[in-house]
Predict the 3D structure of the following.
Amino acid sequence: MTGKSEIQSLNTTQTERRGLTDLAHACGFEAMAITSPDAIASAPAHLRSFLEQGFHGEMRWLEERTNERSSPKALWADVRSVIVFAQNYGPETSPLPELDRRDRGYISVYARNKDYHDVIKKRLKAFARELINRHGGEVKVFVDTAPVMEKPLATAAGLGWQGKHTNLVSKSFGSWLFLGVIYTTLDLDPDAPETDHCGSCTQCLEICPTDAFPAPYQLDARKCISYLTIELKGMIPKAYRKAMGNRIYGCDDCLAVCPWNKFAKDANEARLQARADLSAPSLLELVRLDDPAFRTHFSGSPIKRIGRDRFVRNVLIAMGNSNDRSLLLEVTNKLDDTAPLVRAAAIWALSELASSTEFRGYRERYEPTELHPLPLAEWASAR
């Protein structure tokens, strides 16, 4: 976006700053802060270490444009200030008890309604338009759409700090935060960075079902259930299947257990509040979704992005963890699915729910005619 390019500075007096904060609130954000584009000097080293250790797994896009990701000026040479916004999406109560409902699926809180990218981007554009109208300058708007390191920038701007789980934590809003960023040519006074308030607490590290934190402030995404259920395209490694429990899209354990959440407010926007059918949905209903039904059911949801096959793979893993033999018929139905990934997941679920005699019967029927390596690998490694 471009306004009056000759206006490149803004004297952020107390009144002007209050005006920006009020504008952010009017656009639907709960917090806004400003930092300089050179405020995350340590970010390149952290990113390089993360990539060198292979913690990013199949997220190869993180290997691209690392220079731009590490430095706002490398992405846009004209940027003078970075405005960071936070939107709370915290649930009314802790979602963790839903993990005990093994005939139901657990969907990460952020994905239980409209795609937050669409919601936050609309708000950022509204703020940007008014900023240009009032003060001129040029802007670029980002919501996970470019190589921008939102969490380090938010820390530098003082919105919070990156906790031991690597996510942003706020003294006012806890761990449940969406972030958005605006780069601008306006020269704005930066806010003071936030300091770390985790102290000796390690609850987020201890609760992780897959031990995805090799050390405090480090995440091995390859072990993270959010990565496994969303980013990983193939079969989920056996070492993590049991630990997934009924989590079928993402994981909130490290967020939900954070003590700072006691200060968090409930999400104040209807589009960010959970759809009833996405809070502990029936595994039986979800596993029956074909591709058209999946696309319809998750229209406007971030879940739609992973596609039906990956999603049903996750559902079948949850069914295998359910200890509920009433789900066995639907599991066996998926042995005939057209998607090899789904057939492979069904084989594992079958091995968990069926008796030895039942499993042997299905194996004798299906293994000889299977041609794809994914299901064949599951048959070969099954009991």
